[in-house]
Design a protein that fits this description.
Distance between the termini: 34 Å
Strand content: 5-15%
Number of helices: 19
Largest sheet: 5 strands, mixed, barrel
CATH topology of the largest domain: Butyryl-CoA Dehydrogenase, subunit A, domain 3
CATH class of the largest domain: Mainly Alpha
Structural class: alpha+beta
Low-confidence stretches: none
Strand order of the largest sheet: 5-7-11-9-8
Shape: globular
Radius of gyration: 24 Å
CATH superfamily of the largest domain: Butyryl-CoA Dehydrogenase, subunit A, domain 3
Number of domains: 3
CATH architecture of the largest domain: Up-down Bundle
Mean pLDDT: 95
Length: 549
Amino acid sequence: MSIGGFETHEVENQPPPLEGRNLYAGDAALREGLLREGGAWAEERVTRFGEILGRAETIELGRDANRHPPELRSHDRFGHRIDEVAFHPAWHAVMALAMEHELHNLPWRNERAGAYVARTALHSLLSQVEAGACCPLTMTFACVPALRHAPEIAAEWEPRLHGTAYDPVLRPPAEKGAVLVGMAMTEKQGGSDVRSNSTRAHPIGNGPEALLVGHKWFCSAPMSDAFLALAQTDRGLACFLVPRFRPDGSQNPIRLQRLKDKLGNRSNASAEIEFAGTWATRIGEEGRGVRTILEMVHHTRLDCVSGSAGLMRQALSQALHHARHRGAFGKRLWDQPLMAQVLADLALESEAATALMLRLARAYDAGGDDPAEHAFARIATAVGKYWVCKRTPAMVYEAMECLGGNGYVEDSSLPRLYREAPVNAIWEGSGNVICLDVLRAMVREPESTTALLDEIRAARGANRHLDAASDELGRLLASPEDAEAQARRWVERMALLLQASLLVRHAPAAVADAFCASRLGGEGGLAFGTLGRGADVEEITARASGGEP
């Protein structure tokens, strides 16, 4: 607009849109980790997916899916119950893209070494653009180990789970090329205390079939074609597969009572549901339902780590991009020492999370044949889930602050990342539940503690801060009398030591040294941007930004 020859709206000192870039190609930590941990054979597909996700139109799909959250349609216009969820077309487009690239089933379709690593990289990339879609994809991926407790059911459902053609229409699974599976575990009176569940399974004859009666306070991905759910039997809790359709083709009575109005993860539906004589078939033994469904939970926790790592990486990318293009006080933000400290500190957090998620994925790949890797995955997944997910909200907030007021408005995407950041820490076991699970693993499966400590000590002698902190952890674990009260402290130290060991062995010295000094050596403060004088912030930020100045 021009008034009297004067331009009143000339835009300057604003960064260009962060789009049209390959999310994988610019991430050195992810690229190196994919190759190191066994996913080299999948690099072409991960590169291709990273390019698609970086396109402007794909980024817009993520925005639209969150601007237009799902809606519950409990009845049709004639008053018949239909219990469906309506989604914006952008959601369907993201789901179709993700399923085409096998985010929901890659390790089951392609059981070669490195398949978990490849899928974890893909999942982390998707979470940078649209994290809500990761929930149904994760549940579907994670249900397979639980289903295999009932081989005849697995034989029927696994071929459907191998499909890659997204089909959102509610119809019998035999008519679909691919299906989704959700989970309904918690109830309003118990939350994480699932053994207090009141949903009851009424047996049909002497077989595994039953009719379920009860409610579930949280049903993840209620638009799915089936769910894994817990219900009480005469012998205690059991795990059941609950399909949307009965064997005779009629719709199973799964009543969607309401959709949860969540802080974040708004593109994805989470529902409160009721079972009203709902047909189900048991998976695994009666009385061992928690152990059965934990096979699913164990795999979802891996995705909690990779999803949070993806959120971290996207927040870091936004901060780096802004700092490169924004000037203040006579020079770029990038060139100002205090901002460089903050960016480098954020980069350390992101790289440590990325290294840990890929190492965990390799343990899942090898765990079927290697008892030590299986034991490592058992405890390290919980450790990583606790710490990486716990750090994400603070890290995303700090990245938002790098943009100032621009970061606080929705157009920047950082508010959406910030709302999304707590979800992986809360779901699939909140902080205390996870820490108690670590203690349980240490007592019941002591080989898991040995495997974790062996992984940490693999870097012995390479960094004095890591060596000292490792010795301190050994002393802490030798005093079990107050283990429960100290569990958060123990798990935090385990996570930091594990991340430090991975960085010392695999990252550039500038990254590893700064991480160990700040996180283990007492040379950093409590806030981001307090690395101290010895940190090579220029090299750290250059690596995190793909080498761009």
